[in-house]
Amino acid sequence: MHANKQHLAKTRIYDTKLKTHHIRVQPGEFYVSEKPDAIMVTVLGSCVSACIRNPFNGYGGMNHFMLPESEDGNWSGTSSVMRYGNHAMETLINEVLKSGCSRHQLEIKLFGGANMFDSRQAVGSQNAQFARDYLENEGLKLTASDLGGNFGRRIHYTPNNGKVSRLILSQTQATTVERSELSYKSKLIKKPVEGDIELFS
Fold first, then answer.
1. Is 92 in contact with 25 (CB distance < 8 Å)?
2. Sheet containing 11-15: which strands, arranged edge to edge?
3. For residues 160 and 35, is the Cβ–Cβ distance under 8 A?
4. Separation CA 65–CA 28 (nearest Å)
5. In the chain, what is the straight-line distance between the N-terminal and C-terminal CA atoms, in Å?
């Protein structure tokens, strides 16, 4: 199975404690693998990551996306940044479906959506609710989630067995993540609307 190359994560990092290489999934990226020892890592503030796999063969992956509120508040709104979020979810879902399972068999876990700094806007809460609404509107089951709060997260995901490890970020790490997400959001707003992707049945 060959994944769509657009927005495919390419950064490999070496974990000195576990003595193994991981794939780092950064904002706007995704990654899928069928390798038994594949581990995907991402760091989240107000952004959300979905970890999705075929539970029958362990083929799966992770994405990392920002889902700002659309102008009309509807998950299927026409805002370019909103459609980018849909693109990130649909791309990952389609890639996992290629491994042979049906949509209702997907194992889906959501992480992130923190309100770390500006609680008045509650961006993280909006992102988390958007992700839940997306799955509900698509008729997809949420297997597990760790959303909200006021802390950043580091997520390690092993699609082969579905295991997720979460590490709470320190204040210094959280500040770095916030700056990174703000920079990504600024670039995303200027990005043209992505093409539609139809979910496989």
1. no
2. 11-15, 20-24, 40-44, 153-158, 163-168
3. yes
4. 5
5. 18
Amino acid of residue 84: Y
List the domains of the chain with CATH numbers.
11-166+183-189 (3.30.1330.200)
Cα 74 from Cα 52, distance rounded (Å):
24
User: Model confidence over 36-92: pLDDT tens digits?
Assistant: 999 999 999 988 999 999 999 999 999 998 865 444 444 444 344 434 577 788 889
pTM beyond 0.85? no
Query: DSSP readout, 82-103?
Result: HHHHHHHHHHHHHHHHTTS--G
147 bridge partner residues: 112
Please name the residue that has the structure tokens 């609307």.
Answer: 193
